[in-house]
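To the structural biology subgroup,

Please find below the input and predicted structure for Cytidine deaminase, which we are adding to the shared reference set this quarter. The sequence is reproduced verbatim from the submission form. If anyone notices a discrepancy with their own records, reply to this email rather than editing the shared folder directly, so we keep one authoritative version.
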Amino acid sequence: MSQTAQQDPALLEALTLLLGSDTIPNRLNAQQSQALCQHLDCSPIELAERMLPLAASFSFAPKSNFHVGAIAIDQQGQLFLGANYELAYGPLSGSLHAEQSAIFNALSHQASALTDLVINAAPCGYCRQFINELAVASQLKVHFNQQNYQFSQLLPQSFGPDDLGVQSPLAKLNITKAEQAVDFAKASYAPYTQVQSAMFAYQGEQRLAWSCYIENVAFNPSISPLLTLLSQLKLNHLSLDKVERFELWEHKDNQFSFKQELENFAHHSNKTMVHYDYP
Ligand SMILES: [Zn+2]
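Predicted structure (tokenized):
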């Protein structure tokens, strides 16, 4: 925090003034981003670019030590921050990329259509494929290294959801009325396997964070509920110490399970986990 503050004291000061707190926010609503743009005399994209070090501060990268920040902007002008998250153990595939983290942050807060994605590094090929799952991919603008691109420039002649016959690509998660654990599992985006899976972190009966499964047409850039959940905890300034119990909720007919993945993590972090199969 202090290091980031030294880099852009004007931004930090404006944020503290506006939010009445010096905690780095993981998102800004439309009024907040407008007020900041006015105060700092900058455009929403410039604001997001200035906020990238704050987004990257949510990164957990014990393996690469490469801290990526990404910010998704929706049609209403809301900003959603995201950062990469790596598991400290196991193979390199145990990682969530910043773009995925920001997009899940937006989806989980029922963002309107995403218009822009601002990143502090070039998006890797894996993320370009992940982004291509979005219903808005063809209109999305991507900003990095002081350059602005239409997403289609970054992934020409792409393989997309329509190649596997998916008519409704990733747009919104159906969580408007979600309360019960199964409601979040049912909100999974899994048009290729119909798998329903959600994970939760609890402190006593308090739900600290949740996540659900998001799938990709190229399969590999699909994101696991575990990494998404850990990223959500980090974005909400919640340390693992607070978590007393992990829960995994899956449909009993799922063709695969995330149980092993969560079991491994629970074992490595000395936590309790509970697995539920629902009909
Ligand atoms: Zn990536």
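Summary notes: Residues 25-164 form a domain with the Cytidine Deaminase; domain 2 fold (CATH 3.40.140.10). Residues 97, 99, 123-124, 126-127 surround zinc ion (CB under 6 Å).

Regards,
Lab coordination
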